[in-house]
Design brief:
- By secondary structure, the chain is an all-alpha fold.
- The protein has four domains: about 100 residues, MazG-like (Helix Hairpins, Orthogonal Bundle), CATH 1.10.287; about 30 residues, no CATH class; about 70 residues, Helix Hairpins (Orthogonal Bundle); about 50 residues, no CATH class.
- It is built from 13 helices and no strands.
- Helix 2 crosses helix 5.
- The longest helix has 25 residues.
- The termini are far apart.
- This is Nucleoside triphosphate pyrophosphohydrolase.
């Protein structure tokens, strides 16, 4: 790891050399690192200079989501740009850490490279020049447990280490996966469906009652739905994102159809919009056929 002795206060590279790198279209990663250093420099961008880990974190999450959306849309040019934005977030956090003397971008690259070697002994061997491990004998959980032990990390529960900052659906998925490892799980999807029916009934009983109880039962129903997705090998975030996109497509089709008649949704009846929804749905199915 970098000792940070010259981080933060060290001068930038010679300005002429820096300008040459910044404006070098083929400068690749060193160019991006230099651009970030210039943005954070005393004479850099005021907004970029005042940011810290906490203020940048929401943008990091947003950029990761935009990468996922570009993949969902199958737009390669868009994916290229979004991956660049996500890479910029890594460079940004690394630069802030370098200025504080904690670590630098090179340390991030070294750490993840070393991790990939450790976790893939069936590809690279346990050490350089050694025979590769049998893929069937590679247990990622054992490897990760060894890494935690080496770092002195202690886990009192199988649920430890699931970030609280994850989205609700993703965290529910990870929590139930952890519990399933030790046998706390339903046997098959039909068992989960029965639990969903039970939770839906409990929610129905609370409708019209205390808001806190309604929220609790609604949360229980969502949680079991995530469990069903896990049993069906369906990622809940992906499924919901696609359902959102489908709803948006069909509702926009309703708006377009009404606009062609010189009307807006506010000027249409529910029955009319339902009929247009069914038409949009039929058109999508016909297009897929």
């Amino acid at each position: 790891m970098s000792d940070g002795s010259d981080h933060g206060s060290r001068p930038l590279a010679d300005r002429e050399a820096s300008d040459a790198l910044v404006w070098d279209g083929a400068g690749s990663l060193p160019r991006l690192l230099e651009i970030m250093a210039r943005l954070r420099a005393p004479d850099g961008c005021p907004w970029d200079r005042e940011q810290d880990f906490a203020s940048i974190a929401p943008y990091t999450i947003e950029e990761a989501c935009e990468v996922a959306e570009a993949i969902e849309r199958g737009e390669m040019g868009e994916l290229r740009d979004e991956l660049g934005d996500l890479l910029l977030q890594v460079v940004y956090h690394s630069r802030i850490a370098e200025e504080a003397g904690d670590f630098a971008f090179a340390d991030v690259v070294q750490a993840v490279s070393d991790k990939m070697l450790r976790r893939h002994p069936h590809v690279f061997g346990p050490v350089r020049g050694a025979p590769k491990a049998d893929p069937a004998e590679v247990d990622w959980e054992t490897l990760k447990a060894a890494e935690r032990a080496e770092k002195g990390e202690r886990r009192d529960s199988v649920l430890d280490g699931v970030p609280a900052t994850l989205s609700g659906l993703t965290r529910a998925l990870k929590l139930t996966r952890r519990a399933a490892r030790v046998g706390f799980d339903w046997t098959e999807p039909r068992d989960v469906l029965a639990k969903i029916a039970e939770e839906a009934g409990e929610l129905a009983e609370e409708i019209g009652g205390e808001p806190a109880r309604i929220e609790e039962e609604f949360g229980d129903l969502l949680f079991v739905m995530v469990n069903l997705g896990r049993h069906l090998d369906v990622d809940p975030e992906t499924a919901l994102r696609r359902a959102n996109a489908k709803f948006e497509r069909r509702f926009r089709a309703i708006e377009a159809a009404l606009a062609a008649e010189g009307r807006s949704p506010e000027q249409a009846t529910l029955a009319e919009m339902d009929a247009l929804w069914d038409a949009a749905k039929a058109a999508e199915k016909a297009g897929k056929g």
